[in-house]
Design the sequence.
């Protein structure tokens, strides 16, 4: 029992360091998970020549919580805006399947196909979960909640996508369309899409409009401050595109300076190692078995393979619906990874080595997956969930090693690992984590 507790503590430490540590250091959204809520009716954004306006946030319910910030506004008729986004060389829409709900961006470059559109982007009509916008029609009409006029998307359902929700003015005398664009990826642990951020989608939509020949980048595209920063990576500045010929909007661009710090390590690492350090490294190398490499390769292959195969089936197997693809691949995550880990770890000698190899392999697989998707922002609940699954898999592997199964193949570590794995996945699937 004492040894099991030590192994559990080591695996938890590794999970926190290799999953939680980088997430908390690099994810701006981890500190912004609780949205603010307005106690009174909020002020709306409007234009000098328009009576109507909008509150610069969207919500999943009719509540004034500052969740999804509006980040693009286009002055023009709704059909003109949609035509500008959806314009193709053949003038036809690329309508996507109804199952593509609430999704979005370019995913896995090695799976991408070249697309030729007037603006360079293939926006398809999308179906998705409803988000409510608070709009004021102006005049004698009261402000009210409305649903989106249209949704557009570009990307892969089982990869990462750009997603746009469009809301047109409720006043027929005005001409504006407010948009909320964001990027999101499919989370195989929850079978849902998770929003990654809004800045990348805003820049993509902005560049899409700027590529239109009728748009003058100096006069028709600008930035305005809606003061809706906070959620995700929103900085409060929205793109304003003028497709009308009535006025020239002054350019107020907010340029965010991005500074990268690069350092080069000139000194060789072994110059700082003592004899004791070298002895420890040599001992660790002597304990390395071929089974450790097989275990690591299996976990990496299964975890990343689900992502790649999911995108491939979505693109190439038209006879399979999104739900069927999920039904085929989800068991690989829930059952395939822990079962394969247990079977391979049975051939390993030491409990600690097996636990460390499995937990580190899953942590590396998670970060490779996020790296390929371009995800650099994780909310706290995702970080906690990933730490727990890494710990669970480490316990399963440690409990399957030869030294752990001398008395019984069903020991405390295996039971704890399986129970934790099941509880975390069920809790995640039903929204508790």
Sequence:
């Amino acid at each position: 029992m004492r040894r099991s507790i030590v192994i559990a503590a080591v695996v938890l430490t590794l999970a926190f360091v290799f999953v939680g540590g980088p997430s908390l250091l690099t994810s701006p959204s981890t500190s912004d998970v609780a949205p603010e809520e307005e106690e009174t009716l909020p002020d709306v954004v409007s234009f000098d020549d328009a009576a109507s306006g909008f509150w610069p946030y969207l919500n999943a319910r009719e509540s004034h919580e500052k969740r999804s910030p509006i980040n693009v506004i286009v002055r023009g008729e709704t059909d003109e805006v949609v035509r500008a986004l959806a314009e193709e060389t053949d003038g036809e829409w690329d309508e996507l399947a109804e199952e593509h709900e609430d999704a979005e961006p370019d995913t896995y470059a090695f799976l991408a196909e070249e697309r030729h559109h007037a603006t360079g982007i293939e926006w398809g009509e999308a179906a998705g979960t409803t988000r409510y916008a608070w709009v004021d029609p102006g005049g004698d009409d009261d402000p009210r909640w409305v649903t989106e006029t249209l949704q557009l998307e570009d990307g892969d359902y089982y990869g990462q996508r750009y997603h746009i929700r469009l809301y047109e003015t409720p006043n027929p005398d005005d001409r504006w369309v407010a948009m909320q664009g964001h990027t999101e990826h499919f989370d195989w642990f929850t079978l849902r899409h998770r929003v990654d951020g809004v800045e990348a989608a805003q820049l993509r939509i902005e560049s899409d409009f700027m590529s239109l020949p009728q748009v003058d980048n100096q006069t028709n595209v600008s930035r305005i401050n809606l003061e809706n920063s906070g959620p995700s990576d929103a900085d409060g500045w929205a793109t304003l595109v003028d497709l009308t010929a009535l006025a020239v909007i002054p350019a107020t661009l907010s340029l965010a300076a991005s500074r990268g710090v690069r350092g080069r390590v000139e000194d060789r690492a072994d110059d700082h190692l003592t004899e004791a350090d070298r002895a420890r490294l040599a001992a660790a190398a002597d304990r390395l078995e071929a089974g450790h490499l097989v275990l690591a390769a299996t976990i990496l292959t299964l975890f990343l393979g689900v992502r790649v195969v999911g995108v491939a089936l979505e693109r190439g197997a038209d006879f399979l619906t999104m739900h069927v693809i999920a039904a085929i691949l989800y068991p690989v995550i829930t059952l395939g990874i822990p079962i394969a880990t247990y079977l391979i770890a049975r051939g390993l000698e030491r409990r600690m080595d097996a636990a460390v190899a499995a937990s580190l392999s899953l942590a590396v697989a998670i970060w490779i997956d996020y790296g390929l998707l371009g995800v650099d922002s994780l909310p706290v609940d995702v970080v906690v969930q990933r730490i727990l699954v890494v710990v669970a898999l480490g316990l399963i592997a440690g409990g399957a090693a030869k030294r752990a199964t001398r008395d019984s193949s069903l020991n405390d570590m295996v039971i704890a690992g399986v129970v934790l794995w099941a509880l975390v996945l069920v809790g995640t699937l039903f929204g508790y984590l």
Remarks:
- DSSP finds nine helices and 13 strands in the chain.
- Residues 25-34, 88-119, 245-269 have pLDDT under 50 and may be disordered.
